[in-house]
Amino acid sequence: MELVVFDLDGTLLNRRSALSPRTAETLRLLSGRGIAYTVATGRMLHGSRAILAGHGFRLPHVLQNGVMIWNPESAHYSHASILALDEIRHVLEAVMAQHVTPFIFALEPGDRHAVYHAPVRNAVEERLVGYYRKEGSVDVRPVAELPASADITNVSAIGPLAVIETIEQRINEEEHLVAYAGHALEGEHLGWIDIHHSEASKGGAIMQLKRDLGASRVICFGDSNNDLSMFAMADECYAPSNAKPVVKAAATAVIGHHDEDGIAEFLRERFRL
Asked: Could you tell me the domains of the chain?
């Protein structure tokens, strides 16, 4: 069995962060042919579930850059790489020293997510809090309520791009942590950052999934640095033309732009759909 793995943002999704009609139709054709496919994304479950619903994503999903695997059949997480509060306390201080609010995500009993945050500093952060409050599967709480024993999955933040890049450099000096950053959808001058345990990666989670499913080969698609670990373990790896140069250099081939149905067109040719 071949397992096809898609990154979402900048890869399978268009610039509106949606599946185009052409891509949705291509997924139906894949499913009809019995070709196995899933996602490996930096998003959490609540940020991907609505997008994927109704498009045949029945296999376990790799979420939060490999921190967790979500099984939609059993509705449970596995393969969690958890951080303790003591491991990231200095990280929170470093982020707040840059006048950026960290959002701390924790896995709680019953596989529920909670996000803890310090007082927000601007309208963008306020909108983020509003978004999380609107999402019923996420509890939003002040950072003062964060338990010392919390199972922390990741820390995220959004702020001026130069500030985010400074934070990324600082975090990637930590042996047990890894940070990924990029341009934020909220504005060209803004950047986002996601920080999690260094043992977590898309590649490691996909290797686990490959074993669990008995897949013989992996074909993956991605556009950014957090996709390089799965490029390294895949039998074939493809980057859309909008991908970062380092990702295109690591790819088996560069294919069409994510906003021009590049992945859909490639799949139709590759699998003769």
From this structure: 2-80+200-270 (3.40.50.1000), 85-197 (3.30.1240.10)
